[in-house]
Amino acid sequence: MQKEEGKKQGNWAALSSLGITRFESDQIGDRTMRFTEQQIEQFQTEGWLAVPNFWSENEVTAMRLELDRLKETGKLRNVATDGDGKTHSTTVANLQLCPMWPHSPLFQAMPFAPGIAEALEQLIGGPVLLHLDQVFLKPAGNGVGTNWHQDNAYFQIEDPLKGTALWTAVHAATEANGTIRVIPRQFREKLHHERDPQSDHHIRCWPTEEDRAISVELPAGGVVFFAYGTPHSTGANVTDRERAGVALHFINADQTGTAHGGFEVDKRPWLTGPNATGGEKEYGRKIAGEWERMTK
Fold it and tell me: CATH number of the domain at 3-295, please?
């Protein structure tokens, strides 16, 4: 696939040609989380899957309002540097909050939203555990992207197809505002990573097959699932509006013994299986059901 073709894949018609179909309903409490065989095959062979109408309008509004609150209270910090990996930039910004759950009841509840766990089990098998949550916000005009990397360079699970990110476009994500890019069918290859001098803590790689990269354009509330081994990056936001992406990371329980980062091993919330308690065991109170209450 050539660069020009990869760029074309960003629009919905092109994504549909890859076998990515819409859920029949995007209304909260009525979200049908059954993937087609074609969608499951897409994830398992290509390493990624996009769903454009995953979250409802009410849910997107709640996310935006909560991000505004987190910004106003100084919870997001600029991780972009001047190229030395430590001096924080005063001219460009890549705002990050990781983890989110200690600072936000809404985002703490997000992994427990109706149908999420069921959708995940179809892609990575079960039981499913929450591994990490984070958000990146690219301010209007001077927002910079996150360079190419594989999540598994951080997380180190044995099977890179048994961990997935669920990346949500909180605002419409386009090439102009730096939407996520993925390289399909490369999730089994371990790419060499080094410290990224444009960030105060990130690592990066230089994919040899960048010419096959797909820019995934999505409406607000659309999502991309991508396997831990899938190389991905985001671009600069040169528009006059901010863009944010919330990333929830999940693993199959049989990978938790070797998984690095995120929650401590014995504190990772179980979303499915016999140990799942709706968050009560891990957080001391039941979290399941809170998402519906806060986004109705």
Answer: 2.60.120.620
User: Would you call 256 helix, strand, or coil by DSSP?
Assistant: coil
| Burial track 8-40 (b if 16+ CB lie within 10 A, e otherwise) | ebbeeebbeebbbeebeebebeebebebeeebe
Is 66 strand, coil or helix?
A: helix
Burial of 4 (0-12, 13-18, 19+ CB in 10 A): exposed
Q: In degrees rounded to 5, what are phi and psi of residue 105?
A: -60, -35
Centre a 10 Å sphere on the Cβ of residue 188 and count the other Cβ atoms it contains: 12
Query: pLDDT tens digits for 240-289?
Result: 999 999 999 999 999 999 999 999 999 999 999 999 999 999 999 999 99
User: Average pLDDT for residues 209-224, to the nearest whole number?
Assistant: 97
Give the global pTM: 0.91
- Measure the CA dihedral 67/72/74/80, to 10°: 60
How is the chain split into domains, by residue range?
3-295
